[in-house]
Amino acid sequence: EKISVFAPATVANVACGFDIFGFAVDSPGDVVELTRRDTPGVRITDIIGDGGRLPREAARNTAGISIQRFLQHIDRTDIGVDVLLTKQMPLGSGLGSSAASAVAGVFAINELLGRPLQTIELLPFAMEGERIACGSAHADNVGPSLLGGFVVVRSYSPLDVIKLDTPAGMFATLVHPDIEVNTKDARFILKNEVSLKNAITQMGNVAGLVAGLLKPDYDLISRSMVDVIIEPVRSILIPQFGEVKQAALDSGALGCSISGSGPSMFALCRDLATAERVGQAMQQAFLAVGITSEAYVSEI
Ligand code: HSE
Q1: Cis link prior to 263 (omega < 30° from 0)?
Q2: Of the listed 10, 62, 130, 173, which one is catalytic?
Q3: Residues 74-106 pLDDT 10s
Q4: Does the CB atom of residue 13 touch ligand 1 within 6 A?
Q5: 98 CA distance to ligand 1 centroid (A)?
Q6: What backbone torsions phi and psi does residue 17 show, to the nearest 5 degrees?
Q7: Is 183 a catalytic residue?
Q8: DSSP element (H, E) containing 211
Q9: Which of 50, 56, 67, 293 is deepest in the core (most CB within 10 A)?
Q10: Global pTM?
């Protein structure tokens, strides 16, 4: 028995919603192929596309650990599977690379075993993948990678995840500059305290973005895509951040910020033509200092 599962890249935080907002894109993404084996245990047979950088040991690999935790939970550690992971996106990119592998892995094992759990119940196992990848079991990448669309993590304890409708025909532009930022480092530099003033501003924007997506109201979405807590700290890790953001806004983006922990940046746009124009402008702004990049456009 064999199964192959694709899980998409995701944009976490979506400007104002650190650790609580995320959305999935069509591509890129990762593919996990599972093959049933007679002897028990989870074995990573190969990883393609990581340049040899990811751990091959199942317990240290995001896909491997998610599958192991799932098998422990359903009390089937007698089962044996070979895992072939194909990375189709860059590591350390802020596109939810570790999350896509974890989600593809746990989704695949659930399917292979005849779906003992519902899709939403797979989330905690994929979050374990995030924990070993960056030290924090955040759900704003695995949530949308698993469920698709735009996801709100209303609470972590207990876990409460909500899928939100987004306006039809809204597009996201993703630009991945050819530099790397490690999520662990990008979390380490954050301050532990937030001023009351900034908390109020951020809460207003979080509420405004949810309302704007649901109504839908593009001006409200645009006004709400502001992050006064995380972006000012993390943007120093991204050369040209201010210029790239301005280029996106000047080209008609509703808003632009860091994708997850960076260095990728994303923009939301009202239509495909704008999203493509915005992508070119953002790439140009990176290129102005010699940074090449990859751009992706996807309906969300
Ligand atoms: N919310 C997480 C962070 C996402 O910003 O650290 C990491 O991709």
Answers
A1: yes
A2: 130
A3: 999 999 999 999 999 988 899 999 999 999 999
A4: yes
A5: 11
A6: -105, 60
A7: yes
A8: helix 196-214
A9: 67
A10: 0.96
